[in-house]
Amino acid sequence: MFNYQNFDEVFGFDPDCSYDDDAVAEIEANRKHLEGLFIEKVMKLLGIKRRELSLLTTSNVAQLALQYLTHPSLIPTFADEILEVLVRRASQNLTLALSYYHTVQPTLTSRGAIECLFSAMARTSVTEAFYFCRGQPEYMQRHMFQMLIALVLNNSSPDSVADRSVELVNLPFTPEEESWFEDYLLQGDGRALKKGRDTLMMRMIGTGNFADSLSLKSIHNRPIVGLDWGKLSGAVEGGLGPRLES
Fold it and tell me: Is-contact 224 214, C-beta < 8 A?
């Protein structure tokens, strides 16, 4: 009777068939890079005691592997681990990671996997990441909201940071999110973010909070991306007139 917990019966191991030294070196490098091979996690779950298992994993099979992982007949096992690997090893191209998530719609359970997914979303769509953040448990929302601000201001390319910042300041914040935004950029870790105060001023002006925008004195005397904040603040003061004193 077939015993699925027997390594030799499952894999038909033949000691005379083995990879050459270069292939073995590549396999071991991938095992270290990916923090373990996927098949090893499957074997552990099934209770199969492995011999020294060597499986070749290269970028050439990534697309094919994704097709198998997202097949509708499969239960999305190891979703957290799969998503983390896809995001952390993706460099700048997050297509595989986001395709896996949107196709499988797995229920993620670990904070690490959820934050990996959120960072991938934030790097591709500020608006999508914002609404994803709102859908998380309350105890995680403020932290992820702050992550979004940091990813926009600190991890955007020079060509995209202006557009992404505008997208960020035009989001429909709740009063609570408005408070988080201001606290993070003025009092929290966001104080160290380049152009953090400029972004806050853009938000204040964009939402009609002109009086408070004038309190950000430290940026009024220098031009930012061709915009002279000194002239802008002067125009705001002139526009407010006597209301500024009330």
Answer: no
